[in-house]
Every structure is written in C-alpha cells, then in structure tokens.
Design goal:
By secondary structure, the protein is mostly helical. It has two domains: 24-71; 78-312, Orthogonal Bundle (MetI-like fold), CATH 1.10.3720. It has 15 helices and two strands. Strands 1-2 form a two-stranded antiparallel sheet. The longest helix is centred in the N-terminal third of the chain and has 40 residues, at 19-58. The protein is globular, with a radius of gyration of 29 Å.
C-alpha cells in the first residue's frame, strides 16, 4: 500500500518589517547615542586631544612664548637623552613611585580591614575621618611637611627624641628627602581606603565560613580568600596610584622650590620630573623642550601601564571568569 505524503497547510505569515523603517530607527538611535556622548566627545577634543596634538607640534619647535616657534625637528628629544637632569629627575620620580605606591596600598588595606570590623554606626564617622585629608590642598600639605619634618624643631623629630631616637634631617639630607615625602603622602590615603572597604564588603561571607571549617587560620583566609577576591580593586588602585606618583609635583614643589625660604632646603633629591618640566616651561621659557619632556613622561607611563596590565593577568581574579 503506497503512502501518501501530506503537506501541512502554511500558517499565517508575520508581515515583514519594512527595511527602510528599521534603518531609520537605527539611524535615530545612533544619532541619540552620539547626542548623549557629544559633551564628552567635545570636552575630550577641546581639553585633551587638542592640547596633546598642540604639545606634540610644539615639541618639534624651539618656542619661548615671546617669539614665533622655530621648527627644529627631533632635536628636543635628542637633547632630552643627553640632559643629566632629565635622567636624575626621572630616576627620583621612579624611586618615589616604588616607595609610595606599595606603602599606600598596604596602609590603605590595613585601615580598610579595620573599618570592615567596625559597626555600621561608627563606620560612617571613620570613613569621613579618613577621607577628609584627601580634600586638603596639596600646597597646605607641602607647608605642613616643612613644619613636621624640620630637622631641628619639627614635630616628628621632637617625638622621636622622647623615645631616645635622634631623628634625621628630613629636608636637607638627600637620603631622607624622598622617604619623608613618601611618609607625608600617606596623609591622603583615605581615597584608597574607601575603595578597599567597598571591595572587602563585597567578599561573600560563605567563603570565610568554608575556609574556617577547613581549618584555615586568619592569615590563610586573608591570603587565599580576601586577596584574590579584592584583586580587581588592588589592580585598579595599583595603576592609578602609579600614574599619580609619576606625576608628583605639588607637595614637593611647595616644600622645596615654592619660596625663597623653602629654596634653602632644596636638594636635587627632591627634583622630580614634573618639577624640572615646570622649570623648563615657566622659568626658562623653553616651551618646546618642556613639551618634549611631557611626551617622554607620557611614553614612560604608557609602557609601565602596559607592563602592569600584562603581569596582572596572572594575579587578578574576576568573578565572571
């Protein structure tokens, strides 16, 4: 008996959306998106991209503000490589960054760990207390540095004398200038504390309970649970703090170069890269040379950031992965 194939009757077809209407909708959505982005795009072009391009053009010229720029090609960059003060100021800046960044991260993590154990009513007060120094003007911090770290009458050395320690000459001894500035920079650690506190609050308590059941000590819980879970926040602050440390200027300039009184304390140990750039631009009016210095610093920051990002892939844990 032969079988007969029965073809089902076609159902009602959904009317196709006109292609022109869909294209018009996408175009309107794209225009709306660009409209919302336009303030940022305009701001980036006017205040970031435009000045960057102008500074690169100036870096190829000999320009003193008073006369028209003279094109000199790459000679400013060649002079940079031969300038001993560029190498010295860059080395000072790198040493400052290597001291300041890990100390800031450790101090902030310690304070955040303490705050995480404080009750809710007190936590808000202490968060505000730790964050207040962040809004302190950098110039005031530089003046405060001279008052606290003065070798003869400074409060730090006076306190050290009470416990029988002869304090160093923080402002005149070249080997103690950068450690003193690093210690002073810990005054404004509050912003990093707030970031770490938020990260610690997001660590699931179940992980600590499981680790405790397995017999993990407090240090093992911190090392194997806390650090991996907040590694994203640690990585973010590591990059941000490094970039900020490589651009150190305000406190050091105020303390060592900002006035005639402070100039008597000045030492090449406090000659950071941005201070030397500022001197070239606004004291000696070597705008082309200063622009080349700015681009060299930009390249150094980009290289260091790329290295940090590549190394971080081995240590940073993301929950989505």
């Amino acid at each position: 008996m032969s079988s007969i194939a029965v073809t089902p009757a076609p159902g009602p077809r959904t009317p196709a959306r006109p292609r022109g209407r869909a294209t018009g909708l996408r175009r309107r959505e794209a225009l709306a998106g660009y409209g919302f982005l336009s303030p940022w795009i305009i701001g980036f072009g006017v205040f970031m991209a435009g000045p960057m391009i102008a500074s690169f053009v100036l870096s190829l010229t000999d320009y003193d503000v008073l006369t028209s720029p003279d094109y000199v090609g790459w000679s400013n960059y060649q002079d940079l490589l031969a300038d001993p003060k560029v190498r010295m100021s860059l080395a000072n800046t790198l040493v400052f960054a290597m001291l300041q960044v890990p100390l800031t991260m450790m101090a902030a993590l310690g304070l955040a760990s303490l705050l995480a154990r404080v009750g809710r009513r007190s936590a808000g007060f202490f968060r505000t207390l730790f964050y207040l120094p962040v809004v302190t003007p950098k110039v005031a911090v530089g003046v405060l540095f001279l008052l606290l770290f003065n070798g003869q009458v400074g409060l730090i050395n006076s306190a050290l004398e009470w416990i029988g320690i002869d304090g160093p000459q923080w402002t005149t001894d070249a080997s103690w200038v950068k450690p003193g500035l690093v210690t002073m920079s810990l005054w404004s650690v509050g912003g990093t504390v707030v970031i770490y506190l938020a990260a610690l609050k997001n660590v699931p308590s179940e992980l600590y309970e499981a680790a405790a059941i397995d017999g993990a000590s407090a240090w093992q819980q911190f090392r194997n649970v806390t650090l991996p879970m907040i590694s994203g926040a640690l990585f973010f602050t590591f990059i941000v703090l490094t970039i900020a440390a490589l651009q150190v200027f305000d406190e050091a300039y105020t303390a060592f170069y900002g006035s005639r009184a402070a100039a008597s304390y000045s030492s090449d140990a406090a000659l950071f890269y941005l201070i030397y750039l500022f001197q070239q631009a606004f004291q000696f009016l070597h705008m082309g040379y200063a622009s080349a210095m700015a681009w060299l610093l930009f390249v150094v920051i980009v290289i260091i950031t790329i290295i940090q990002v590549r190394v971080s892939r081995r240590f940073v844990y993301y929950e989505g992965e």
